[in-house]
Each structure stands twice: as structure tokens, then as C-alpha cells.
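Practice problem: predict the structure.
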Amino acid sequence: MELIKDLGTRLINGTWIRYAIFKCSDCLQEVEKPFGNGLKSKSCGCTKSKGKNNPNYKHDGKGTKIYNVWIDMKQRILNSKNKDYPDYGGRGITICPEWANDYTKFRDWALNNGYIENLQINRVWNDGNYEPSNCNFIPSKENSRNRRGQKIKNIEMANEIRVLYATGNYTQKEIAIKYNVSQVNISRIINNKGWV
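Answer:
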């Protein structure tokens, strides 16, 4: 768990106990715990005990691939220490509250919208948020072409793409695969809206 704020000591049953607020490594919720306990544990307990008596219990998904998709997505958006944060949360991408706060809602949406284990979550509009209207699941190879930073290196390559498309022998998708860039970039080039 990540230490968020030291709350100082409190007298509990005649003993002074130091408390702090920690962020759970599993569900990313902030919880108040005795200082030593929070430093030693990775989780607030959200995945251990089940049922109504545990207000932190959210799901039964820990260890599944779809749960890891959800955790990785939240880490990129909400954890400023995550290596991918600058390209996601750091540039203003968010997660809809429904998904951010409830794994089961994300899981149910994913299973009803094409999720299978060999696919990755994709934001259709690369500058858009993680939300039902902007997400789908695609193969990793296609997802890597959609990442920011995939660029056509010079005007000659852009002109070559325009010529290929003009022949009528290639679709935009085929050209995107050939040049390892997103189909959006190919569309921009073909429509003379840029080539980077």
C-alpha cells in the first residue's frame, strides 16, 4: 500500500497507535489503517473477505486477465508513479467513474462488448477517455499501431502512401499495417491533413 498521509497517534484502549491513510494496491481506494499494518500490507483487504460485512469487497476477479486489464488501466490513469502515467493520466485521460469505482461494472461491459483473453482494450479516439462509448477490444498488433508517436518519417513516405491508396489496390487498413501506423494517420495523409 502507498502511504498518502500520516495522521499521527491516537490513544486506543490505553495504547498510543499511529494511524495513516494508505492507497490500496489492488482497488486503489484510500483507507485508514494503523501505520505499521499499512506499511506491511499491499491490500486493504478488498479481495480477501466476501459479502456484506466487508465494505471493501468489490469482486471475485483477482488473478484473472480481465481483472489485470482493469488494474493496468487504472494504474496508467490514477497512479502518478506508474511509468505510463505521463502518456495517460498525466495528459488528461480519465476513466469514467462507473469503471474506476467498480470492477464488476467494467467486467460486465467488457464481456458484453467483445472481450476475449487475446485482445487488448483500445480507446477508439486516442485523446479520449476510458469509457464505454470510446473503448473496444482489438489485437495487440493493431493496438500498437494506434499508439501516439507512430509517425511517417518524411514527406516522401506520405506521398508514397497517397500513390498506393490512389491505385485502388490497397485499403487504408492494409496501408496502416504495411507502414505500422494507425489507420487514423493514413486517413489524415490521404486527405492531405498532415503526415506526422
